[in-house]
Every structure is written in structure tokens, then in C-alpha cells.
Specification:
With 482 residues, the chain is an alpha/beta fold. The chain has three domains: 137 residues, Ribonuclease Inhibitor (Leucine-rich repeat, LRR (right-handed beta-alpha superhelix)); 181 residues, Alpha-Beta Horseshoe (Leucine-rich repeat, LRR (right-handed beta-alpha superhelix)); 42 residues, no CATH class. It has 13 helices and 18 strands. Helix 9 links the parallel strand 14 and strand 15. The protein is elongated. Keywords: Cell membrane, Disulfide bond, Ion channel, Ion transport, Membrane, Signal, Transmembrane, Transmembrane helix, Transport. It is found in: Cell membrane. It comes from Anopheles culicifacies. It is a single-pass membrane protein.
Length: 482
């Protein structure tokens, strides 16, 4: 059995808020602090101030504790409040297991006009129906352990004597700075489902220390899970300022992920820059540090030289160059960038050939390669190139994501028109002239002959070595040599 006054002490601690502490930079920041209201933790079965609460009853039941505290379960007994008597003395109202999705603060001015403290909890509650009305004595508001996901900036504006606002342990995803009439209000927000893809950079600029536990706020969205909100917002602020550089002022920049360092003491941002549809004639000469993804589709680029010469592209792993004017990527041959890329998208450019062996070697050396996109280019169905290209696509069909949509063309001898064929299904008879076909066949036959001879020579050498080791005799040909 709990000692007398224990629940009141717990509740007082919750109203005054937690002691702020800097969270460690680790993924263990997901622990939600206990925000249970003491009086709601265990329901009394018998009370001298009211009737027993049947375990299977869903009707609201309230208990008045002299001199001025009322605890209600499953709602408010409106009739009893309106009837006058001891409930009119209520200064401290605690609402447990609120049964509705909304709570209307307007009823407080009618039922408990002299209320000084309000506590509200219940996993059904999602919204406040209205902003709080003018309640001249209300000093503390504690709404915790609910599914409350939105509050307006003026929700508590009319509470001119408000001192503490405790909104911990709800499901708030984003807030803007609250408007208050009173001089100073302590606001507690820890344990909500903060979505750090939203803009809450204002928290960095807030200097009044009104938001007492802001250093302990933790992101809960899929992108930033476990990261401190202030850390995520600081990186977003820096990236936003970096994106004002004259080279990319008309692009957009975002922090796509915050990677935890190996020692768990810092974060490394992964930044996405979107410069698509911006009229670029060349790759921008500046990118924010740690840019890993660059979208620069539908521009007028003709070259990818900067991938090999500009240090700002060293960390770029995913680049989308679709629908530009690029005619060749030969400059990427044997480069560090090609050995470390993850996604390279070249759809809709002007490529007609690539050095297949160069790309294939880079893929084999690159353990992190993800996807390559090459469709909607004017690939030329040259006899030798098309066959090599086809072998490459078949070997790496899972890597070249659009391999089934890649076509090449040849000039029809009959009418001089371009004729397009899927590279994966093209045959030598489709694209090779008789002379080319015969030459290719000759070289293929010659290759087979040489390969056979090499195998025979090595086999004979192995046999002679074995015979010499076993019998000590040299080969017959060596014996006959002068």
C-alpha cells in the first residue's frame, strides 16, 4: 500500500517537470519517460467521498477530496458539477481515462471557473476541440499520456496566469512557438513523436528557456529516429544556409539522414541536393559538404567531368543525370568515383556507346554499387558493340534496373530509316552485315583454336613434369635435341 501523500508528491513532480539533461548521442534515446499521473495509476474501489467504482462500469465517476481536489474517471459527471455543493470548491481537477477523442476546454469555465490546476490523461484523446478560455486562476496544465497530435499556437493564450504547461508523453509531431499572455511559462515536451522532417528550426533561436526540456527531445520519424531534435534542426539550418551559395542558390537542399559515427559520439549528415529543371549547362562547381545524393535531371549538361576533378563530388554516391545532353562517360574510366558510386542514372541522354569493359570492371571492384539506369539513349547497334553490350546487360540484369527497356538502332538498308531493337534480344543476324558476320565468326573460331592449343600445351607440360618426377626421364623431344 502506498504511503499517504505519495500520489500527490508524484503528481507535483510531474507538474513541475523533469530535470533537463543532455541525452547521449545514441540510438538508445527512444526511451519515453514515465508520464503517468499518480492519481490515475490505481482506481480506488471504495471511497468515503463517493460511491464504489464497479470494475465493469463505463460511466464517469468523480471523487472529491477535501479541501479542493476532484479526481474523475472516464469523463466528468456534468450533472453533479452543475448541482453545486462541494464540487464547486474544486481547484485541482484530475481527469483520468478520458473516454472521448476530443476534450473541450470551454466546459471548464462553466463547471470549475476557479480551477488552478488541471491534469488530463487517456489514450483515446487526440484533439482539443477549442482553445482554452480565460480561466483567471489556472496556473498549471498537465496533458500527458494521450494521443494528442495537434495544438494550435494560441491554445493556451487566454490563460493569463499560466506558469507550467506539461505536454509530455503525447503524440505531437510538430509545434510552432506557443503564444502566451503570462510573462513566463515553463513548457515540457519530452516523449512526443517528433517528426524531424518538419521545420522546427525555431527551437534553435528560442532563447527565453521557456521550452525547458528541449535538449531532451528525440526524433521519432523513420528518417531521424533516435536523433536529438536540436541536433537534427542544427544540421538542417546549416544545410539551408549552404544552399544559398551562388552556384546552387536556385536548388533545394535537405538532410536525408544523420548517420551515427562508429564511436557513437557524433553524427555525419547525408545531404540531398535537387537541381533538376534549373537550366544548368554544367555540373555546379559547389555542393554542401557531405552531399551524397544529387538530382540534376532535365538540364542542359553535356559533360560529367566534375565527377572526376571537383572535390565537392567525392562524397556523391547517387547522381541522377536523366534527360540531359551527355554524349559520353568515357572520362569516368578507372576513376575513384566510378569505383565507389551507388546509383548512376543516365536515362534520356545522347549516349550511343560506352566502354563496356570499363564499366564492368568498375562494377566488379565496387562492393556498394546499387543501380544503373541507361534506357532512352540512342544506342548504336554496331555489330561488335551491341553483342558486348548485350552480354553485359544479361550478366548484370539485376543491377541495370531498366535493362529490358534499353534499345539500340541501326540504319535499314532498304529505306535508310532507323530501326530500333531491344538490346537483350538482338542477334548478330539482325545487326551484322555479312562481311562483319563472317569476320566475327572467323575471329570467334580463331579464338577457340588458340584456347584449345593453350590447353593442350599446358596438359603436355604437366604430363612431362609428372613423368620426369616419377621415372627421372626427360621427354623424348628434349632427348633428340642437339
Amino acid at each position: 500500500m502506498l504511503p499517504p501523500g505519495f500520489c500527490s508528491a508524484v503528481y507535483s513532480i510531474l507538474l513541475t517537470g523533469p530535470v533537463t539533461a543532455q541525452l547521449p548521442l545514441s540510438l538508445q534515446n527512444l526511451v519515453v519517460e514515465n508520464v503517468a499521473i499518480g492519481e490515475c495509476a490505481s482506481r480506488p474501489s471504495v471511497s468515503t467521498q463517493g460511491p464504489a467504482i464497479p470494475s465493469n462500469s463505463n460511466r464517469p465517476v468523480c471523487f472529491f477530496t477535501p479541501p479542493n481536489r476532484t479526481v474523475c474517471f472516464r469523463g466528468i459527471e456534468t450533472k453533479r458539477f452543475q448541482a453545486g455543493g462541494k464540487f464547486n470548491l474544486t481547484r485541482w481537477l484530475i481527469l483520468c481515462d478520458w473516454p472521448l477523442k476530443t476534450f473541450d476546454p470551454l466546459i471548464l469555465s462553466r463547471l470549475v471557473p476557479r480551477i488552478e490546476r488541471l491534469a488530463l490523461t487517456g489514450r483515446v484523446l487526440q484533439r482539443l476541440a477549442h482553445d482554452f478560455p480565460a480561466l483567471p486562476y489556472l496556473r498549471m496544465v498537465n496533458i500527458t499520456g494521450t494521443r494528442l497530435n495537434y495544438t494550435s499556437v494560441s491554445a493556451f493564450y487566454e490563460l493569463e496566469r499560466l506558469q507550467v504547461l506539461n505536454l509530455r508523453g503525447n503524440e505531437l509531431e510538430q509545434i510552432q512557438p506557443y503564444r502566451f499572455r503570462s510573462g513566463h511559462v515553463e513548457v515540457y515536451l519530452q516523449g512526443n513523436l517528433w517528426n524531424c522532417t518538419n521545420d522546427m528550426i525555431w527551437l534553435l533561436k528560442e532563447q527565453s528557456r521557456q521550452y525547458v526540456d528541449k535538449p531532451t527531445l528525440v526524433c521519432k520519424d523513420w528518417k531521424y529516429t533516435g536523433r536529438p531534435v536540436l541536433t537534427a534542426m542544427e544540421y538542417k539550418r546549416v544545410v539551408r544556409e549552404s544552399c544559398l551559395h551562388e552556384e546552387i542558390w536556385n536548388c533545394s537542399c535537405h538532410v536525408s539522414y544523420l548517420r551515427l559515427s562508429d564511436n557513437g559520439l557524433s553524427f555525419h549528415p547525408m545531404i540531398m541536393v535537387n537541381c533538376s529543371d534549373r537550366g544548368f549547362y554544367q555540373l555546379p562547381q559547389y555542393l554542401p559538404g557531405n552531399t551524397t545524393v544529387l538530382h540534376i535531371a532535365r538540364n542542359k549538361l553535356q559533360s560529367v567531368d566534375s565527377l572526376t576533378t571537383n572535390e565537392h563530388y567525392q562524397s556523391v554516391q547517387d547522381i541522377y543525370l536523366d534527360e540531359n545532353r551527355i554524349t559520353t562517360i568515357d572520362i569516368l574510366e578507372d576513376t575513384i568515383w566510378l569505383d565507389n558510386f551507388r546509383i548512376l542514372s543516365l536515362r534520356g541522354n545522347r549516349l550511343n556507346r560506352i566502354r563496356v569493359y570499363s564499366v564492368e570492371h568498375a562494377i566488379e571492384r565496387n562492393p556498394g554499387v546499387g543501380k544503373l539506369y541507361l534506357s532512352n539513349n540512342p544506342w548504336r547497334c554496331g555489330c561488335r558493340f551491341a553483342i558486348r553490350f548485350q552480354r553485359f546487360l544479361r550478366k548484370h540484369e539485376s543491377l541495370v534496373a531498366d535493362s529490358r527497356n534499353i534499345t539500340c538502332y541501326f540504319i535499314n538498308d532498304d529505306d535508310g530509316r532507323k530501326q530500333y531493337l531491344p538490346v537483350l534480344t538482338v542477334t548478330p543476324n539482325d545487326i551484322c552485315r555479312p562481311s562483319e558476320h563472317n569476320t566475327a565468326a572467323f575471329y570467334n573460331t580463331l579464338s577457340i583454336i588458340f584456347a584449345t592449343l593453350i590447353v593442350l600445351i599446358f596438359t603436355k607440360l604437366a604430363y612431362d613434369y609428372y613423368h620426369y618426377r616419377k621415372y627421372g626421364k626427360l621427354p623424348w623431344l628434349i632427348m633428340k635435341m642437339p
